[in-house]
Every structure is written in C-alpha cells, then in structure tokens.
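User: I'm writing a short methods note and want a consistent example. For Multidrug export protein MepA, I'll paste the sequence; you return only the structure tokens, no commentary, since I'll be parsing the reply automatically.
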Amino acid sequence: MDEKKRDMMSNEPINKLLIKFSLPAIIGMLVNAFYNIADGIFIGHGVGPLALGGTTIAMPIMMVMMAIAFTVGTGAASAISRRMGEKNIEGAEKILGEAISLNFMINAIVTVIVFLFMDQLLILCGATDAMMPYAKEYMRIIAYGILLNSFAMSTNNYVRAEGNAKVAMISMIVGAGINIVLDAIFIFGFDMGVKGAALATVISQICSAIWLLYYYIKGESILKIRILNFHLTKKNVKEIIVIGMAAFFRQIAGSILMVIVNKSMVKYGSDYHLVVFGIINRFFMFMFMPLFGLAQGFQPIAGFNYGAKKFDRVQKCFQYAAIYASIQSSFAFLVMLLFPKVIISIFTKDPKTIALGVEGLSMMIWGLPFIGFQIIGSTLFQAIGKGLESLILTMSRQMIILIPLVLILPLFIGIDGIFYSYPISDIIATVITSIVLVKEKKIFDVKKIQQEY
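Assistant:
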C-alpha cells in the first residue's frame, strides 16, 4: 500500500473514511439489488406468479454458491487488510493468489454436483409440480455461470480490501446494468421466459468477472495476481476459511432456512404463499443492501487499523457504523410499514398474491430496526480476525433461533407462525450481539490491548 493510502487509512477522520469506503459499496450493492428487484418484476409480469415462485425455489442452491464466494472473499479480504496494515504486501499478495485458487477449486466441484443432481436438489428445495419446470429451466442455465459469478463476488472483496472501493462498485454496476437491459430484451422482446432471465444473469456475471480481471491485468491494482501464489498453503487456507466461516454459515443458514420456509409455506399454505415469500425476500434484500455495503466499507477500515494497532480508531469506526446501520434498518422498517400494498404490487397484479403479500409483510417487519446493529457487530469480529465470535453472532439469528421458530410456531398458529418467526429471532439475536460485545469489551479498551501487545 502506498504511503498516501496508508496515511488515509491511519489518520483520515473515521466518519469521512467510513463514508468514502461505504458509499461506493452501498451504491454498487443497491444497483445489484435493483437488478434482483427488476428480475422479479420482469418474471412476475412477463411470465407469471408461478414462474416467480420457481426462481424462489432455485434460490437456496444459489445461496450455497454465494456462501463459498463470501467465505473465501471475506476471509481473504480480512487477511489482506491486516497484512497491508502491517506493511506486508508480499503476504497480502500470497493471500490473494491462494484465495483465487481456492475459490475456483471448490466451485468447480459445486458446478459438477449441481448438474448431476439438479432434479433432486430442486425437490429438496421445495419444488412443487407447478413450479418445477420453471425452477429447472432457470437453474440449468444459471449453473453455467457458477465459476465466473463466484470469482466476481469474491474478487470484489479483495479490491475493496486494498482501498479501491470505486472499482468494486463499478464492477457491480456493470453487471447489474447489463442484466437489467438483457432481462427486458430476453423476457419481453424474445419471449424467452425464465430462460431469458437466467441467460441475462450469466452474461452479466461474465462481464463483471472480465472487468475485475482487467483491473488486475492492466496494473492499476496495488496487489498483483502472481501464478506462483496460486499454490495453496495450509496456514493461509486455514486463516481464510476460519475468518470467512461466519460469512459461510450466514449464507448456508440462509439456504437451509429458505428450504425449510419453502416447504413450510406449501405445507401450511399454498404455492401462492411461497410466491409471496419470494417477493418479500427480494424486497428485504433490496432494502438491506445499504447495510451490507456499510459493513463492507467498515471491514477494511477496522481490519487495517487493528493490524496497525490503532485501536481507538477501531472503536470509533464501530460506533459510527452501528449508528448508521440502525438508522438505515429503521428507515427500511418504516417504508415497509407504510407502503405494503405498493411494494407487493410492484411484482404482480394478481389480487390473491397482493392480499397474501400485504398480510405476510405486516407480520415480518417488526424486528427490522434491530438488524443493523446485529450485522455490524458480527462484521467487527470478522474484521479483527475473531472468526469464532463472528460465527456465533451469525449463527444465533438464523440457525439457532429462526429455524426452530419456523418449525415450531406453525404447529400452534398455522402459517402466521412462519412470518412471526422473523421479528422474534431478530430481537433475540440483537440481545445476544449486545451480550457478546459487552463480554468482548476489551477490544475497545485501548490501554489494555496496547499492554497485551
């Protein structure tokens, strides 16, 4: 890292630095999330509600793919940030090379598994007879883009870790923009249905991957991709996986949760309840992308300053990030509270789907104001290399609390229990996050940590 960027990371006011790093990530992720919204709109209006449900069925499989990219991406990004904070550029480049190699190897195996067992996987994810044709048609094409999509998603983290958040943002905008345009052309222009939506996604992933690869090839990056660094070492792979494990379990937990919810929606409700869940889930993702963008901007700053032993700046960065995250999650809550019918109507004009959607949304939103704090708390531990604490916080919401609630509450109050499980788990997870932060408060005790070093 050159001295100018090192000085910026070490001395620039934290609030200004957090905005500088987070804003490009937020913009890029919002654009990316808008693609997901547009994809749902095009499929919902251009093909129909059941086709939209078919893509919801495919989502758990896609989340497993994302889990691998996020595991390697966030784990390596944390290691890269800390090594750059320690002025160890050679070590940072070694992490970069091994991360690319590790990501490719794992996702090559995943691609083969998806093609060999596609029908079984979709049935496992809750596919009904009505939705199976749409889910299979969509997934068959999406699978071709697994390797490049995973490369683009993970590499965004490496680029951001070396201080080039703008490049990462542009790669997301390029991919999302191409996806939206091709969605409209393939679905409405060529009448290709869900096949068109999937093809648009794969092409956009290819474009994002090419953009990021070009960034490294043309020599503008601080870190260089060197073939010699592709050789995996036990020490670095372990570090990447341990630190990234929280991101992995967050995505895997989300995938398992979606499988359970998909099946429960059909069991206690109908195919249309599953469609509604898919719509609400898409809008949730859109409204909370700023939180994930903020977390991505927060992580390299906290990681760098922790590596540089500037613990007072780590503390201040966490405080600002937690405040901004709480404001954003409260804003999302108000939007969904005030405009539920408008939100559902964006995706479909079917009266039955709209009525069920408004009802479901009104039950799911009550824990939203607390999510921001929980996400930043988990990201803090990930940034400073405390993977176990981050993993505990990540697992507490989805695996430990939410999944049991989704399985138990419907036994007593029917399908409403699935929707109410979300706010209950959000509130409990926030309490757990607060407890873990209090117990780990030595992170913020500057004098104590400096004595330990």
